[in-house]
């Protein structure tokens, strides 16, 4: 039986790749979540802007997920003007889902830097955290967040499902050493990142000349 939890996997998805997609699929399956949303950041406050416009990042996510109706795109951050803070995003989701558990999914690298997020302590009041393993990222929490993660850690999915928020579960996913940075570098350098991301997404990137790619690379003839 599926859980009534809502999973939210935020990121810049610049572009989306199989590291994101496989992790999402495995968490959805393992935690039996039927409402799993990938949520592209509009104007991410944690770094110096993005490379592709929100419009393109959204379009690429939609292409990647088109064959998989159980994984959906939540557009609320890209539809909002100005910087998007996860704490505000989760509050707006919470207002819609009542007391259903919300699972904020993030990779280990992102979890390690959680204490730099805007009003990060409040995230635990709004959602559970599901931390997914990622190659080359070990758990390394700064002192203030280490305590939060330690105190709130649970081992079983059912410990998350009995309450709306406040726990942390670590989930091992298949280790795919893929990053958007590497894909962008390959494209800008005239190389072909095929098989690291869906072919439909790569075709979109080439069609729109994103990330400094050359449209002719990777085409036959
Ligand atoms: P960039 O290289 O531009 O920083 P990225 O590949 O890290 O991008 P993001 O969109 O920044 O992708 O990541 C969104 C979320 O997905 C983060 O929580 C990140 O930890 C997680 N994530 C990204 N790639 C992987 C992967 N290969 N395996 C597991 N989690 C991943």
Written overview of the protein:
The protein has 10 helices and 7 strands. The protein has 221 residues and is an alpha/beta fold. It folds into 2 domains: 170 residues, Rossmann fold (3-Layer(aba) Sandwich); 32 residues, no CATH class. The protein has a 7-stranded parallel β-sheet with strand order 3-2-1-4-5-7-6, sandwiched between helices. Strand 2, helix 2 and strand 3 form a beta-alpha-beta unit. Helix 2 runs antiparallel to helix 10. The model has no long low-confidence stretch (mean pLDDT 93). The structure holds adenosine-5'-triphosphate. Adenosine-5'-triphosphate (ATP) binds next to helix 1, strand 4, helix 5 and helix 9.
Helical segment tally? 10
CATH level 1 name of the largest domain? Alpha Beta
Based on helices, strands and strand pairing, what is the structural class?
Answer: alpha/beta
Domain count:
2
Q: Radius of gyration, rounded? A: 17 Å
The run of helices and strands is EHEHEHHEHHEHEHEHH
Cα end-to-end separation: 50 Å
Mean pLDDT: 93
Helix coverage percent of residues?
25-40%
Strand percentage lies at 15-25%
**Which ions, cofactors or small ligands are bound in this entry?**
adenosine-5'-triphosphate
Stretches where pLDDT is under 50 for at least 5 consecutive residues are none
CATH superfamily of the largest domain, by name, is: HUPs
| Secondary structure tally: strands | 7
Most strands sheet:
7 strands, parallel
């Amino acid at each position: 039986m599926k859980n009534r939890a809502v999973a939210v996997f935020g990121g810049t998805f610049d572009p989306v790749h199989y590291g994101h997609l496989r992790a999402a699929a495995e968490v959805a399956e393992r935690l039996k979540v039927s409402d799993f949303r990938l949520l592209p950041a509009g104007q991410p406050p944690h770094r110096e802007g993005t490379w592709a416009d929100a419009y393109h990042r959204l379009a690429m996510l939609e292409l990647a997920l088109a064959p998989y109706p159980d994984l959906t795109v939540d557009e609320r951050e890209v539809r909002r003007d100005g910087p998007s803070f996860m704490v505000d995003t989760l509050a707006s989701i919470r207002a819609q889902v009542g007391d259903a558990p919300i699972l904020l999914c993030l990779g280990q690298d992102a979890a390690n830097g959680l204490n730099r997020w805007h009003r990060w302590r409040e995230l635990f009041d709004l959602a559970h955290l599901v931390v997914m393993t990622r190659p080359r990222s070990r758990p390394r929490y700064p002192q203030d967040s280490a305590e939060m993660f330690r105190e709130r850690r649970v081992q079983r999915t059912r410990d998350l499902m009995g309450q709306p928020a406040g726990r942390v579960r670590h989930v091992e996913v298949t280790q795919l050493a893929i990053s958007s940075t590497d894909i962008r570098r390959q494209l800008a350098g005239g190389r072909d990142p095929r098989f690291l991301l869906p072919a439909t997404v790569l075709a979109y990137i080439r069609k729109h000349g994103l990330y400094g790619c050359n449209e002719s690379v990777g085409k036959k003839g």
